[in-house]
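# nightly structure sweep
# worker-07 picked up a monomer target from the shared queue
# config: single-sequence mode, recycle default, output format = structure tokens
# input follows
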Amino acid sequence: MKTAKKKKLKWQQYIGMAFMMLIGAVCGFLMVMFVDRFSEDTPIHVEVLSLIGLFIGMYVSIFFHLILHEAGHLVFGLMTGYRFSSFRILSFMWVKENDKIKLRRLSLAGTGGQCLMTPPEFNDGKFPFALYNLGGSIINTIIGALFLIAYILFSDVPFLSPLLLIFAIVGFLIAMMNGIPMRMGTVDNDGYNAFALKNNREAAESFWLQLKVVEQSSKGVRLKDMPSEWFRVPSDEGMKNSMTAVRGVFACNRLMDAEKFDEADRLMEHMLTIDSGMVDLHRNLLICDRIYIELIGENRSEVIETMLTKEQKKFMLAMKRFPSVIRTEYAIALLHDKDSSKAEGILTEFEKQSRSYPYPHEVDSERDLIKIARNKTND
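# output follows
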């Protein structure tokens, strides 16, 4: 069963790539059709420049619809009572800190952007979530339709017509990629998140709490100082829901922040072995934490090597700028590889990334954990 599930998760990782390949294939087909419409007397350099322009236009359209997608979450969130918290495109993130908007940097594997907002109150087990989650796909669909109408109106205009059609098709495909419920390996898409919340009070409460944690984080509050009831560990049955599973992950994160390592390790080991809806992003970050705990504890090489699988190493490379991953790499270099020079280089990178990280209090927590690892060399 575990092998089948692992193969399924591995297959899911290629869904996003498949959609991007589909975008490239469809746009490439349109470009070829456009070239065929040129007369035999058309200079070759005009054809080449037109193809280059359309090729560039395809990438511009992807970036354009990515921004629109996150803006859709923002617009529909504001319409349904949410308040702005952060807005990220690629690694550029605008965060609300003490009523001021500041530019920070954050990269998350498997995501091109993210709009996080403070939710309205959770009344009688309900709060609006559908439009906030699906707002991005709705906007992509609307704007895609407008580009399609523009294409029909200007279908006889050279270069402009295929460009408009590319913008329309990219909008529709990005809307589908995010709106049709799918597990995409590292993260779940918007449609899947909305589906996970439907008719499930526990999942809805978990989603609401996630956004409240983000709100408190933007105010500089550490996990260990937030209300303990927010971090109730879900049942094994509840963990099967992807949204509820995040609450379990937060419970582990809070134990790490409180430096209750034995309790955190037991909980993480349990969560990593049960059948759950946890996304790979959280699963791999928990493994990072378990590696760190082993390093500052018994420091058994065979246990560490077992957790440092090829998949885990690949993930840590992709998330090499994330504070908890850098902290774990530091501990590996210092306590496993016994390479103090390498460890100091990693520490320099940690300080560099910390300056632009959106949540300074998380950096403070990671800095405390780095200090614990450093002190282990003097034991």
